[in-house]
Every structure is written in structure tokens, then in C-alpha cells.
Amino acid sequence: MKVIGYWMPTLGLAACLATTGCKKEEPAAPAVPAAPVEQPAAVDAGTPVDAGAAPTPAPTPETQTPPSAPTPGPQAARPEDPKNREWTAGRVSIPRPSMKPVTLLEVREGRNEGFDRVVFQFEGDQVPGYHLEYIDKPVIKCGSGDPTDVAGQGWLQVRITPAQAHADGKVTVASRERKPKLPVLEELELTCDFEGEVTWVLGVKHPNKYRVMELREPTRLVVDVQH
User: Fold this and answer.
1) Do residues 157 and 134 lie in contact, with contact meaning Cβ atoms separated by under 8 Å?
2) Per the confidence metrics, is the pTM higher than 0.90?
């Protein structure tokens, strides 16, 4: 009986080693506690959050829109504006120094509803520069420097340049002193035709407001003086 009892355990061990079914049971590893869940940062109560909107990606340098230029304010009227139709008693000056001299062909005057009109007509298709303002006496002739008497209580000087009132040694406007019978315009006189400058003085009853316009076909400079 003792012999049999000793053989049985040995036989069982050999049978176990001959098969792959015998495994030593490992003790179970202790459970690892789960990491604490990080709570989201608090949102400023004063800033609403759109939970349904996707986050907007930051623009790349290639797609960034450059800052827009500041919007310019209202632009003042350009000095070369050919239709200065505002009534004024001050100065009107439109310089055009780069032009070639333009020949004055004709000067006309007439009465209109509410104003007297003087028209200066030129050769070509471009009105030269001009400067208008009321001046004080004495009215001076540019060539001689002598004073000249012009009727009226106001004297509106119209200086046109570069221009000339002559061509090939002959004057292009024969009547250089005239006294029209108009409500406000009492006299017109050419006071300068020298070195690219032509100047007329309009003698008026009162230094009323006037306006200046440029017209085409034919080329004209128009001066209206209010009654």
C-alpha cells in the first residue's frame, strides 16, 4: 500500500508535463484606480457661448485679409472742376499753367433773367486758366501801368492765362471798351493783352455775387453777375 501511494503522485506529474493543459495560476493584479475626471473651466457669465457652433480656425498668413484702408472723408471740390456754378462774391481761381496760350476770339454780353452774362469765346477745345475777384480802384492797364477809369461801384477783374487777344499782329477782339445798357453791367474794358495774359474788368453797379462756368462747342468761359 505504501508503494502504490508513492507512485500515484509521480505518475500524475508526468502526465501533466506531457500536455499543455497544466498552467500555474497567477495571482490577480490589484485594480488601478481611475484617473480623476478634469472639470471644464468656468465660462464667464457675461460672454454667451454658442454650444452648437464649431470653433473658427485661425487664418493662416497666406489667407489673412489685410486691413482695409480708412474710408476718406468728403472730398473738397477739385480746383480744376470745369463747372463751378456756385454764386460767390469771393475769388475763383482755376490755374492751368502747363497749357499753350489760347486765342480769345470774341466777347459778348447780354441780359438774362436775374443776371447779366459775359461770354469769352476761345479758339480750340480747351478753356485756359482764369482768376476772378473784385478789385479796388484804381484799375491799372498792365502794359503801361497807367490807371484807367471804369464805370460802376464794383469792378470784377477777369484774368485769363495763358491766353492772347491777338494773332499775327492783329487784334482778335476789336471792341475793347464797351458800355452795354444792362441792369447791372455798366462797362467792360480790356486792361491787359501781354505776355500770355488777357484781363478784362467788368464795371458793375454793385459788387453782387457772380458765378463762372465752362462751356464747350464752342469753347467758352461764362461769367454771370446777379442783378
Assistant:
1) yes
2) no
What is the CATH code for 92-226?
A: 2.60.40.3500
Strand order in the sheet with 185-194: 92-94, 129-135, 154-161, 197-204, 185-194, 177-178
Sketch the domain layout of the chain as residue ranges: 92-226
From first to last of its 227 residues, the chain has per-residue pLDDT tens of: 444 444 344 434 344 444 444 444 444 544 544 544 444 444 343 433 333 344 444 544 444 444 444 444 443 434 445 556 799 999 999 999 999 999 999 999 999 999 999 999 999 999 999 999 999 999 999 988 999 999 999 999 999 999 999 999 899 999 999 999 899 999 999 999 999 999 999 999 999 999 999 999 999 999 999 99
Is the peptide bond between 48 and the residue preceding it cis, with omega within 30 degrees of 0?
no
| HEC profile of the chain | CHHHHHHHHHHHHHHHHCCCCCCCCCCCCCCCCCCCCCCCCCCCCCCCCCCCCCCCCCCCCCCCCCCCCCCCCCCCCCCCCCCCCCCECCCEEECCCCCCCEEEEEEEEEEECCEEEEEEEECCCCCCEEEEEEECCCEECCCCCCEECCCCCEEEEEEEECEECEECCEECCCCCEECCCCCCEEEEEEEEEECCEEEEEEEECCCCCEEEEEECCCEEEEEEEEC
